[in-house]
Write a structure and sequence with these properties.
The chain is of the alpha/beta class. The protein is 51% helix and 12% strand.
Amino acid sequence: MPRYDSPSVDVDIVVPVYNEQAALEHSIRRLHSFLTESFPFTWRIVIADNASTDGTPSIAAALADDLPGVTYLRLDRKGRGLALREAWSRSDARAVSYMDVDLSTDLRGLLPLVAPLLSGHSDVAIGSRLARGAEVVRGPKRELISRAYNTILHATLRVRFTDAQCGFKAITRGAAAQLLPQIRDDGWFFDTELLVLAGRDGLRIHEVPVDWVDDPDSRVDIVGTAIEDLKGVARLAFATPIARFAAVGLVSTIAYALLFLGFRDGGLGAGLANAVALAVTAVANTAANRRLTFGIMSRRGLLSQHAAGAAVYAITLGLTAGALGVLHALDQTPSLALELTVLVTASLVATVTRYMALKTWVFGTLGSHLPTRRTPDPAAIQGPVSVPCRPVRRPRSAP
């Protein structure tokens, strides 16, 4: 694999490519010229070729031989996210960034993008085509899709950034070491997952309004990409403890309702049918929340947690039995449907109490067994990398 043999630089600019023989040489020479003449930090350009089948590999290798500060990384699998993951994880630069090969974003936005990272002000920086002050030229179809996608992100994942998929981002080396092991997507959703995880980890995200001109020759499969992105959004939405708790609760409620109806049809009274159905689902609910919601895989403490879960069951039983008692006081012969409706409603009312009890009491004493996110040593992001790089160009100035 390629190796970046030069001394460490301030910024690595990764340009992921796939079958870009037509645009590659012009774009890289333009970027190289801009950095040489106008960029005040030390830099390196990394052409990350993810399994191109046209003339891209030979062009990229020739550029790396011809231009100081340009390196070439060849991957044998497709995926923009994969290209960024590999290039970033091999970097020893203080900050790593990327931009699309079409250079749709005005290169003058690069300095305000990386300066907050190098100064220690921020951990992640993104170019935004939707932030106030951005100047964007693109068709109405892409504009609508972009705004719709970001609206979905705000509604489902409660994110604060304005533009998830602008191809113009940067991240500190330490933040990359922290986030890259958590990211599962190797395609176009990589960007969104990176930003969502950064927000959940409490990292500081800086937005830069950019001037951006749409590339009319873009070959991105908009429909296919949109479908994969929506799948990724659903996965991240379910990844939160509350979402997992809600999913477990929904399945438990359905199972409880079916058991209650079965016991009632079998001749049990409403009170006994409720107690037995709750008892069965409470055991399954505690086990599922233990594993899925709170991520506890060890068997240590299993019995004590189920015993504590039984106490939570008693609270729920008290609420549902009380609701059932009130119903029978008002109507001595309620319908089965009405009984079930009252019981499910009372169970839902107990849901908040159940979640807090599970979180703070049942599983709260096992903090040492809960999964934790450790911030890796930034040095861990280094790895073998290739093709000699330019001698380090010392900065003329710094902010």
